[in-house]
């Protein structure tokens, strides 16, 4: 079993004729993901890597009613409208790769999607992969292997690095989700944990957080209450971040002393989570957690 994406996932690529959309559509096809259609206004009737292109999501879904997932490579000024179009067409999972979307725009389309029963992953995220079944994102597929450890991360690069470390030590992954590094994102840590709690394939979970916001603290509170019962290993990026320095991720902001590295680590450890000092410690901590 898996969460979010699996062998039944049928993907629409919005922005498929652009450089990024075309490149990653092919990479997803090469991985075995069922990419069934693309959308670019004005490019309807063409094909990209054998995938038919339509002018609108509504047209694509009418021709391919099996579509259940969309991935968005549309530039930031137009990305919110692309999300609304996907949700209005009845697509229940929307992965937004685009970065640079204004926070208030994200708040509006995430709220709209929730009202319509759809899940948004991102924006500014690498996507989601269930190894051996489906990749809906921009991650290099060959570094993942099928297994029982879920990975949920705010950092794209650390998603790849830690997953690859797990793979090289023979620890496979159930589903890996990059939720994005913006201040407002669709899927949160706590929502991801609820999904993995119900997933019988997932034996343990790696949580990759960073400074800023309170998503890690809320996940810790959930674990402390016993609402997530599987072993959790965490790594929090930003321990050596200099004060008064703007960091790379828009969400990595410490405000009025909240969202610090120390506060997140303390909250997680008080919830019984093993917190790695460096990414390299994660595989050993996971192995130890699985033996308990």
Shape: globular
CATH superfamily of the largest domain: Succinyl-CoA synthetase domains
Structural domains: how many: 2
Corresponding CATH architecture of the largest domain = 3-Layer(aba) Sandwich
Cα-to-Cα separation, first versus last residue: 23 Å
Strand count, sense and barrel status of the largest sheet are: 7 strands, mixed
Helix coverage percent of residues?
25-40%
Strand content: 15-25%
Find the structural class using helix and strand composition.
Answer: alpha/beta
- Low-confidence spans: none
Kindly identify the CATH topology of the largest domain: Rossmann fold
- Across the major sheet, the strand order is 3-4-2-1-5-6-7
Q: What's the overall average pLDDT, rounded?
A: 94
Measured on Cα atoms, how large is the radius of gyration?
19 Å
- The tally of strands reads 14
Binding site for substrate: 160
Active site: 249
Family: Belongs to the succinate/malate CoA ligase alpha subunit family.
Domain CoA-binding: 4-101
Give the arrangement of secondary structure elements:
Blueprint: E1 10-14, H1 19-31, E2 34-39, E3 47-48, E4 51-54, H2 57-63, E5 69-72, H3 79-88, E6 93-96, H4 103-115, E7 119-121, E8 127-130, E9 134-137, E10 146-153, H5 156-168, E11 173-178, H6 189-197, E12 204-210, H7 215-224, E13 232-237, H8 261-270, E14 274-276, H9 282-291
Parallel strand pairs: 1-2, 1-5, 2-4, 5-6, 6-7, 10-11, 10-12, 12-13, 13-14
Antiparallel strand pairs: 3-4, 8-9, 8-11
What are the main properties of this structure?
alpha/beta; 2 domains; seven-stranded mixed β-sheet
